[in-house]
């Protein structure tokens, strides 16, 4: 394939924002375009004249502050499924196309969620603790077959979670923008307007929704009060979906039985957070979709999109900037 051409002639200019980890396997991308690797401190200087940005450091918020006043590159690709860090007004209102890494994390996150459900039901934390203490203490645990799971978010990740939990014997319901019956992955999908009703029926509430103005803080004190006292909350979406102070209060008061949190409003989670030591709480460092080889898959997806960019073909995973996620008519 011929190199991507810059509007002014010559190879296109691609800026890759890197953090502590540098992407490997970029040789194919480097054959298609001029690729420059920069850190946050050099991003503003690198953006003017660039054709595209690859947000390899997908946890960075630096793009908004570095965005040129005259308008930025025509395409931004991020190495994550969530794009909330990119949707600042200048980018949303401009001509820039945004693509994400939808499709890479679906099954790994679904496996992670199933593991958490099993860990809660089978009380594995206590088993590991008693083993460390060399204590033999017989206990009874819970069944997951027939337990009710509510998956909030009906995108590819939510769908993969629904399939996994259904296969394990749970009764799954979804909640999303559009209501429907007999969904192949999520059973009955309730509209978000009926979320309160769905929360009251669930044994496991799994958050897999994107972070948008509509979903920010959706799990607040009122929502937690509607959950069953025996229910557990699992968040693999975005930290901002949950009002953390309200969650801490609900856990301390025994309003819900537990929570497994892979994402947080502030990351890393501060050492001072009470969530670290609360009984019934699992804290993981934003890793539910990170499996062996995931970085290589991210690079392959970006390189494929760069090749599409070179040939004028439609890009994969184009985000609807007004909605904050990839439209339902696209395939990852």
Strand ordering within the main sheet: 8-9-7-6-10-11-12-13
| Average pLDDT | 95
Any low-confidence stretches, pLDDT <50, length ≥5?
Answer: none
Q: What is the first-to-last residue Cα distance?
A: 22 Å
Going by helix content, strand content and strand pairing, the class is: alpha/beta
- What portion of residues is helical? 25-40%
Q: What is the N-to-C succession of helices and strands?
A: EHEHEHEHEHHEHEEEHEHEHEEHEE
Number of β-strand runs: 15
Radius of gyration: 21 Å
The fraction of residues in strands falls at: 15-25%
Q: What global shape is seen?
A: globular
Biggest β-sheet strands, sense, barrel: 8 strands, mixed
Number of helices: 11
How are the SSEs placed, and which strands pair?
Layout: E1 13-17, H1 27-32, E2 34-38, H2 40-46, E3 52-55, H3 62-66, E4 75-78, H4 89-93, E5 97-99, H5 106-121, H6 124-132, E6 148-152, H7 156-167, E7 171-176, E8 180-183, E9 187-191, H8 195-199, E10 204-207, H9 221-226, E11 232-235, H10 244-252, E12 258-261, E13 281-283, H11 294-311, E14 319-320, E15 325-326
Parallel strand pairs: 1-2, 1-3, 3-4, 4-5, 6-7, 6-10, 7-9, 10-11, 11-12, 12-13
Antiparallel strand pairs: 8-9, 14-15
Helix pairs in contact: 5-7
Can you walk me through this structure?
- This protein has 332 residues and is α/β, with parallel strands linked by helices.
- The protein has eleven helices and 15 strands.
- It has helices at residues 27-32, 40-46, 62-66, 89-93, 106-121, 124-132, 156-167, 195-199, 221-226, 244-252, 294-311, and strands at 13-17, 34-38, 52-55, 75-78, 97-99, 148-152, 171-176, 180-183, 187-191, 204-207, 232-235, 258-261, 281-283, 319-320, 325-326.
- The strands form three sheets. Strands 8-9-7-6-10-11-12-13 form an eight-stranded mixed sheet.
- The mean pLDDT is 95.
């Amino acid at each position: 394939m011929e190199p991507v051409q810059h509007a002014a002639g010559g190879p296109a200019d691609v800026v890759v924002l890197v953090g502590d980890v540098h992407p490997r396997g970029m040789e194919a991308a480097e054959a298609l375009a001029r690729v420059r690797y920069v850190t946050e401190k050099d991003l503003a200087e690198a953006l003017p004249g660039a054709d595209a940005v690859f947000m390899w450091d997908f946890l960075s918020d630096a793009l908004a502050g570095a965005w040129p006043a005259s308008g930025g590159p025509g395409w931004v690709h991020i190495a994550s499924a969530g794009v909330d860090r990119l949707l600042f007004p200048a980018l949303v209102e401009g001509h820039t196309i945004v693509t994400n890494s939808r499709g890479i994390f679906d099954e790994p996150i679904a496996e992670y969620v199933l593991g958490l459900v099993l860990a809660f039901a089978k009380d594995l934390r206590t088993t590991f603790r008693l083993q460390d203490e060399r204590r033999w203490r017989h206990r009874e645990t819970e069944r997951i077959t027939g337990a009710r799971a509510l998956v909030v978010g009906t995108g590819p990740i939510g769908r993969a979670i629904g399939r996994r939990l259904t296969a394990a014997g749970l009764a799954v319901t979804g909640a999303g923008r559009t209501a429907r019956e007999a969904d192949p992955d999520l059973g009955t999908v309730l509209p978000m307007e009926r979320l309160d009703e769905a929360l009251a029926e669930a044994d496991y509430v799994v958050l897999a929704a994107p972070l948008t103005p509509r979903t920010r803080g959706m799990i607040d004190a009122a929502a937690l009060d509607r959950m069953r006292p025996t229910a557990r909350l699992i968040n693999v979406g975005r930290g901002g979906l949950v009002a953390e102070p309200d969650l801490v209060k609900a856990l301390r008061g025994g309003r819900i039985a537990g929570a497994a949190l892979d994402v947080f409003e502030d990351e890393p989670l501060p050492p001072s957070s009470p969530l670290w030591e609360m009984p019934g709480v699992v804290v993981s460092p934003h890793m539910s979709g990170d499996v062996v080889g995931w970085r290589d898959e991210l690079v392959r997806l970006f390189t494929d999109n760069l090749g599409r960019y070179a040939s004028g073909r439609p890009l994969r995973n184009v985000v609807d900037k007004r909605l904050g996620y990839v439209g339902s008519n696209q395939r990852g």
